[in-house]
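Re: Re: ligand-bound prediction request (bumping)

Still looking for help on this. To restate: I need the protein modeled with beta-D-ribofuranose bound, output as structure tokens. Inputs repeated here so nobody has to scroll up.
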Amino acid sequence: MDKMKLIIDVDPGIDDSLALLLAGVSPEFELMALTVVSGNIEVNQAARNARFAMKIVGRDDVTIAKGCELPLVRNYVDATDTHGKDGIGEVYYPKEEPIDHGSATTVISRLLRQYPYQITIAALGPLSNLATILKRDAEVLTLAKEIVIMGGSVNVCGNCSPVAEYNFWCDPHAAKIFFDAHLTNVTLVPLDVTYKILLTPNMREMIRQFKTPLAQYVVNITGFYVDFHWAQERTLGCVINDPLVIAYLLDRSILTLKKGHVQIEIEGIAIGESVIEFREKDSSKLSNIAQSVDSKKFFELFLTRVFSEQKDDIQLMIEKGMIL
Ligand code: BDR
Ligand code: CA
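Reply:
Sorry for the wait, this slipped through. Here it is.
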């Protein structure tokens, strides 16, 4: 079976790091590159965090390229309140710089031209890198096979304002350029579905019991995130948005989709809002919008993939109704 060629555009980030673990251990993917963007944390630290996540799953071979340091227009606001001063929960692992592979935008453009209509892009951070490519050369992103984006909120509150989700709020102009380009085969995975991906205290405790370096890493980086969720919204556990995109690429039955026209607000009180018109008749403007998620399927996949050595224990915990 041909592997799925995948570029992950990413801003690690606690949940981004978990997404990288899932992608790194999944044999279905040929990881072409991780392209990093400033978001949760500025791009240099985000790149170190990306490298650390890949190293811990033995994937130090994967190309990591740094992209935009700042949003296109707006002043940059990181999410260190959510992800910690180092972007991964203030664990301060010793981190090495990734090898310099040139700029993220150049790497993405080169790969798309080299493998036209073969590459899937998973975008898990602000869309600054992809919008920069579109501004430079509107055609090159049309060479992607599929682009799946974590961002936006449709019928639920945003996490940066009542209507705006962080990735779009951080760089709304980039999100607007991206969706106004009306690329084909774009899928949006908004907060409406990612909110349901709650890593519960029971799951986290099970992972802690595994006592491997990988399990320890996951427990360590999620501690700050758990505290943030409690302080912010009295949620026990933490919502892990970004791995849902990777899981969906592995198992399409995890999400249900509906076509809609995505527009992004770039000014005023609703800055960063994703406004979706589900009645749009012009099919060239339509993206797929995730509507519902099978969170049980997600967690079975995520846990048994990332902690494959503990598969039997995970199944036992599921059978006992302890974790799902
Ligand atoms: C998104 O913003 C970031 O904080 C997360 O990594 C995720 O990509 C959720 O709004
Ligand atoms: Ca992210």
